[in-house]
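Final report, closing paragraph on structural work. Over the funding period we assembled a curated collection of sequence-structure pairs, and we close with a single example.
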Amino acid sequence: MDTSPFDPTSPHFTANPYPAYQQLRRTARAHHHPPTHQWLIPHHADVSALLRDRRLGRTYLHQFSHEEFGRTPPPPSHEPFHTLNDHGILDLEAPDHTRIRRLVAKAFTPGRVEELAPVVDRIARRLVGDFVAAGGGDLLAEVAEPLPVAVIAEMLGVPEADRQLLRPWSADICGMYELNPDEETAARAVRASVEFSAYLRELIRERRRAPAPDLVSALIAVHDTDGTTLTEQELISTCVLLLNAGHEATVNTTANGWWTLFRHPEQLALLRTDPALLPGAVEELLRYDTPLQLFERWVLDDIEVGGTPIPRGSEVALLFGFANRDPAVFPDPETFDVRRPPATNRHVSFGAGIHYCLGAPLARLELTTSFGLLLRQAPRMRLLAEPRWKPGYVIRGLTALQVEV
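Its predicted structure, as stored:
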């Protein structure tokens, strides 16, 4: 019988995993967890090192077949999801990852993110203005979710009439990133993968015929020094990844972050008094309750963590939520402090190494904009009911956040 405090199937654990992390801290640096067949890696130094260690990978298929790696291939019925997922840079390794990320970075540049600032501000002002005018409501559904989806849709060039399709597709696909997803979750992810891919294939066809000033057109046009371009599948997978990864962090950091602020009224009062604290507060919200609690990697060659051997073929679960509260890195880590200096806030919420989040600057822009507007326009915003957590643990977020302004 497993007696580990780590239990991602438990609603009690998902609602507050941090006491369990403190128990793990008192034991070894690597913990084998039989229920998920993973090695849990909790400490910041180990998480940071393994994110950069090329003896591990997000995939093993660039070196081994499923059988050679001791793994069972996914069912053929899951193929549409894996085709979509396996051509995106999040789950690729060199040389394909290097080539695709270099091409995407040529189109999704810091300058393009800067150009999005007025777009983010315009969309956020409309959403926050409507929310305040209505006297409040579900902050998650009415501000946190629509903002990043609208921004990414506008960036990609998705017509406004089609944007209501994106969030359900994304939610269904992201269900497969949870631990041990069931067949119903897989079926929804497959259906969403087929529908989203078909939609993007048609959008790409239109942009090839008539380019527009959007990211899809830029991704079609971008080429490497040797003339290499993105394949159609790589284009589709990149667009889906930009939506999925580009909005999940923003949505959940917004809702989780406001829940954190409501539970720390003295910190909320500091932010309302001194808006200059906001950029650092966003980093602290990302650290204190990261929406991405766990990041998985495969062990491609034998490694050792803290004296514990971990053999090839294993899967490690890097515990971002634990690493972000490691006392070896963060003074008084269990304390939420909006004055924590951002320059020393070395949280791993956006990852590290070659898989560091490409959309981190956009996420920071969206978070700073929406929090700033709500702090100014709803200075007396208060919580109406304690929220409930969704069942997912890997991507951890609330079901709703009911507030009054």
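The two ends are 49 Å apart (CA to CA). The chain is about 50% helix and 10% strand. We thank the funder for supporting this effort.
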